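Structure ticket #2291
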Amino acid sequence: MLACKRGSPQYTTGSSQNEDEPINNCQTASSCTSNYECTTIGSMQMCCPTVSSICSNTGGRPIDAIRNTNFDPGMSMKRSFSLSFSTSSRYYYDAEQGRCIAFTYNGALGNFNNFKSAADCELFCAKLQCKYGTPLKIGAANQRCSNNADCPSTHECQSDHNVCCPRPQAICSQPLRLGDCKQSVRRYWYNAVTRACEIFDYTGCQGNDNNFETLLECQNTCENIIPEPQCPQGDAYKDYQGNYYVCSNSGAGNSCPVNYECYFDGYVWGCCPTKAYTCTLSPHKGVTCGSGSSYRYFYNSQTQECESFQYNGCDGNSNNFATRDDCESYCSVGGCPSGGTPERNEFGQLMVCSATQVCPTTHECTSVNSGSSVVNRCCPTRSYICSLPPQQGSACSSSAAAQVCPEGEKAYVNAVDMSVRECLINVEGSCPSNYLCRFNALKNRYYCCASITGDLCPAGKALYREPSSKSPIRCTISSSSNQCPTGYSCQSDVPGAFQGYCCSASHICPNKAEFYLEENSQMPRSCTVGAFITCPTGYSCQSTQSEFTTGYCCKGEVASVSGLLH
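Resolution: structure written out below.
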């Protein structure tokens, strides 16, 4: 049955109440009364409640004179008609405060300003404040503004409501978010890499702003938006409308402004700040935004050292580093001829050595360039450097790499610059072999991650490998298409994962025991239960089903199937 997205359609008035029918042939906004708008529902044009009507105190229903709250708690039906509806926590949009607030719903009736989650409420009612997307927040409250200077460059001030609304570039650069619920709602998202709007099944909650109800709305919002170029340091150059420049070393695109250079991040060209420009900039505290303030580091070209400063959370400039090490590495603090970094004193400052200020025995006093001057630093000796243990994968356990992947997985680190590899969901070759594209909700980005142990399937499940290449098959979990062969399904140990591998639908051995892999095929060795020696030493032929005579070579003696966990 066709119906409005939320609320009841407007009805015609017949001679009797039973003759009332919904208006299904409206042509213009004037065809509907106030608080209704002409909306296309399938092949019909219906008068549906406006967003402002649904998100008001009346909630798209006639006003209830008895109620004295901004929300409608509904009614309890426990004692009426032998029905039982339990109470639950719901959310309503408070037009006076401009935000969604929790309330206790009694279980029945009420009005349509009633949402199961805060995210659902914000997604539906946000258009009252922002044309696209949701307002920027500090905690649970909207960040207030009086002009664009009060908002980060990704947002603009909506003066009617004094909130920071996202620009199209910010919305359309967001990655695909399916959500965390169990519904299946057809929506559209803008793929900035392919520069096209694509259909997807939204699960109903915990999505992001790159989520449109119609293809036309997606296309009108995101026309010609390109993905954000990933610069080695700092943000790519944007025009006055907040759109990224597209440049090219061949001269086909825009030329970059002074102090910027054309850079290709593997997907798109962009104008990135030069190292010389970055390391001469004064610190910029940036603009206050929802992420809050923190301490960062900048390179002081006067003292030739990296120093801390308080950062407001958004914008600023490219002379902004998360750690002192990042700052020193990028701006080449030190300059020791044999490598390594100069010694620091107990206050964390670089030591200046002399005849009276001697260096530790592991270091030697060396003249190094520091900007336009020369200064004496305590640099590590060659013998000390060569006596250190080899650095094996230290970048892989660095704070940056450790914080982007789910527990039990490691990030792929680019060997050239030790940066963590970002990826694009369902784009072939976006991640190396045995790595999956995982979403990090905190950073709102996708990263290439792999199991630390090397196990690609849940315990007790067998990984399917292509017979010719012996490679595992990467797949999309809960996809409507059948990506795995018969007897296998797309699985992952990571809760809420979007990608996984083709693993056996059932456990290979009783009690999830270890199974023997054929050397050539790298698949479990099948066998006949009860037959003479068919498995290698230490393994026995076992089946998870007592009535089956065909099984697999499982570690240990024959086990009872009663303890099997499905």
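Closing remark: The first strand starts at residue 36 and ends at 41.
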